[in-house]
């Protein structure tokens, strides 16, 4: 057993997700940013004297939607609190958040892995808060842009249930998928609309006691999540092996150097002086409102997968892959709506399209083959216009050029030969040039049928309609 | 009596630079006021509920409609220092 | 001088009868200020041209005097309200030069109904104080005795009306900051129920206690200002949606109701003898109208001071965190790190009392002390609230002197914050319980200084509070004017 295998890591994630509202959390500034700094600001989100917060109802609705999607308990009464600290992009000197009584606790999510395994990850709590602005550190000082100040967020805190970086990555993808599915958050990590901090500790396998926890911040891309966590786990294991003590601290992922670095030690931890926000009443969610939000819930990935399984007779795995993102599911649904062939659509999307996309590192949103184009191809196969084999060649061409199947087929003369007279001519030619095989067949060696079919295919450059060909070969040999 | 270090610790948390004279003054005054408020310990409160000071018919919610503030530039006019339409701090921010 | 001591009612009546025009009135008040405020120091800004311009526009629309409830009324605003384009300092160096980018809801509503804001008046820094001696812009003097304080924190608002510089004024009351200066300056001062008037655009001191209210010469004027500015504001999540009665309609006739007043003698121990005597005389007046005085118990009122100072300072420590030299306001000249920039800007920009309260509040909220201080104070606050609820099952009002003493000498209490805090012992519990409280002049002490009588009502019971106060006002008769006005103004 290698050193690292003697240990297991204990990982919990804190996810910050910006909510897809029209306006900010506590003011009416648009929740979108122009390119110019400090253009989406008002007295409230810049903390002018005398300005007061009022809660965006839609933000609460989206938070509750997340609570329902993540199987959480929604509390009918919760309170906003002030978290007091100084930072240039926090204009009030406090962040309005929820502390002792969040609106949501105790949920769970099931994370699926490639091998078909599923793992339950507990959700400790979800709470509302407002985003801070952005600070840009230049050589001559710090520039503060408050366009983002006051954007509504939910923070989703998981239980320390993950044991590998991969699990953490899959958990993060699952949460992102759910939030995107339910139109709660756009999940854009590069833009900072979906962010995550990880709490990481290591312990010897088989031990119960948690190791000292390190908080890892600044993991701002999906590409880094697993890498950053893996690095940190390895760092901790090596430190423990060297007899060092893990220090409780906050570290930051440096994506240029591919390492984690100390941000601050525990003794410098903030004293946030939380107390209930006196400018806001407690957050009351009525039973009626909760019911309404539940009734209006958009379909979630799990529900979509169930539906796909039933309607299109797909396997668990296929259904899960096809619902792994909203775009994927939408793409598949479009293909199937026109091709009317679930199984075949699933195969084409999963095997051919995703394979190609992976190879070129593209997401389904930017697929060069549109859902309409792919369904056209499937229709052509199903109607016997082209063979499956030729279809693959056509698809390669479609993927490379973005052209429609029909134009490629015409250009390359890929049309399937379905004219019995034309095929019969070709078959007769083959029978004539292979007298011994013909004799053997007629003497009862009927498995030679395939040989004749293959020869005719060769003769027609693969364009023969296979079903018709089979039928005609048999007919002529039996004459 | 609060000692000097305690006063400085509070001042640091509150982000207040104090002069020597002020440290002495606040040491004395904070000690006095904190002494006075000890009288609250005489009140048995047990499980007394938290005060909800806001009238029950207040409206905490607003509709999610955006209405841009007409003059965001006015908000920058009060800034002590502006660069590139951003609030400028002539200092490097340390991770605190 | 023609004008200075007119009430809203008198000015409206004159406008309606076309005896004078807004520009004449506003002009006269502005002259009063420019000639005589030097002695009082109540105004921090006077907007001469802007208010004359507004007045002239009203001159053209005299018929609106019939419909606009505050047509052409000169009003002074405490400097912790924001008025778009005007400076707002809250009496602090840290906000010197700050220009408001928007207008407070309360001010917006007064202006929409014809009021003319003639200027911003002095106050204790961030409304923290009971004498107006904590202003970064100098003391305000009491028009009744220029050697004495006008009270605080809305000292400028009180002094300005008492000195004949404005017909009415706005202040804020967190622990007595309207009622106490009203008492010390011989005016009617109202702190409405918490949630009655929008706090949007009013610089926060302690969010759960702050409330906006008027200073006036009469109860009717107080009712008029309140009915215009009260009511739900969708920009303040703490404002009540309860409808606003037409208070002045309700005051058409002097009430003949027989009110039951609750007095807690235990609470009133230690009051100045002159104040006690005048208070007793006030009680007698209510009795004369058929009222009844009963003894009530407010067992937790004595803890109001500690409760208040923990809660108010805790909230203040957070509310004042935004003044850090980054986005607006004072910034230190010497800072190499951002931490230094915050600490020095705040250390240099805030005054002594504000820093004391910020530190106290920071301490009360800090790790390990929250339960013992903030949470405990909140629970005691609930007890105080319950005391009043119980009292109101037996009486219509709880009454007390507004302040344990009359106006004290400038500098008399500045070295001793705790002694200063004691000025507010009869007003603090009212804010803690969120109740409406009104101070009305009831007499003069041996030094010819005014004494205030405080009526404390049930939540949102402003109507009946005005009714009782007007009954008292009628029985009391005309209240004398301060010496400062002798020969200066005539009706």
Present the secondary structure layout:
The complex is a heterotrimer of chains A (about 475), B (about 100) and C (about 500).
Chain A: E1 7-18, E2 55-56, H1 57-69, E3 73-74, E4 77-78, E5 80-84, E6 94-98, E7 104-112, E8 118-130, E9 134-138, E10 141-145, E11 152-158, H2 165-181, E12 194-204, E13 214-219, H3 222-241, E14 249-254, E15 259-265, E16 275-276, E17 283-284, H4 287-295, H5 301-312, H6 316-322, H7 326-339, H8 342-360, H9 371-382, H10 388-401, H11 405-412, H12 420-433, H13 435-442, H14 449-459, H15 466-478
Parallel strand pairs in A: 13-14
Antiparallel strand pairs in A: 1-11, 1-12, 3-7, 4-17, 5-6, 5-16, 7-8, 8-11, 9-10, 12-13, 14-15
Chain B: H1 4-13, H2 20-36, E1 61-62, H3 72-77, E2 82-83, E3 86-89
Antiparallel strand pairs in B: 2-3
Chain C: H1 8-16, H2 22-40, E1 43-46, H3 48-59, E2 74-78, H4 105-112, E3 116-121, H5 155-162, E4 168-173, H6 179-185, E5 188-191, E6 211-216, H7 219-229, H8 247-250, E7 260-263, H9 273-288, E8 292-295, H10 304-319, H11 338-349, H12 352-365, H13 371-391, E9 397-401, H14 417-421, H15 428-432, E10 437-444, E11 450-456, H16 462-476
Parallel strand pairs in C: 2-3, 2-4, 7-8, 7-9
Antiparallel strand pairs in C: 1-3, 4-6, 5-6, 5-10, 9-11, 10-11
Brief overview:
With 479 residues, chain A is α+β, with helices and mostly antiparallel strands.
Write up what this structure looks like.
- The complex is a heterotrimer of chains A (479), B (96) and C (491).
- Helices cover 40% and strands 21% of the residues of chain A.
- Chain A has 15 helices and 17 strands.
- Chain A has three domains: 291 residues, no CATH class; 114 residues, no CATH class; 59 residues, Arc Repressor Mutant, subunit A, CATH 1.10.10.410.
- With 479 residues, chain A is of the alpha+beta class.
- A nine-stranded mixed beta sheet of chain A has the order 3-7-8-11-1-12-13-14-15. A three-stranded antiparallel beta sheet of chain A has the order 6-5-16, with no helix packed on it.
- In chain A, helix 2 runs antiparallel to helix 3.
- By secondary structure, chain B is mainly alpha-helical.
- Chain B has a domain of 39 residues: Histone, subunit A (Orthogonal Bundle).
- Helix content of chain B is 34%, strand content 8%.
- Chain B has three helices and three strands; from the N terminus they run H-H-E-H-E-E.
- Chain B starts with a helix and ends in a 7-residue tail after the last strand.
- The model of chain B has no long low-confidence stretch (mean pLDDT 92).
- With 491 residues, chain C is of the alpha/beta class.
- In chain C, helix 4 links the parallel strand 2 and strand 3.
- Chains B and C meet through helix 1, helix 2 and helix 3 of B and helix 10, helix 11, helix 12 and helix 13 of C.
- Strand 2 of chain A pairs parallel with strand 1 of chain B, so a sheet runs across the interface.
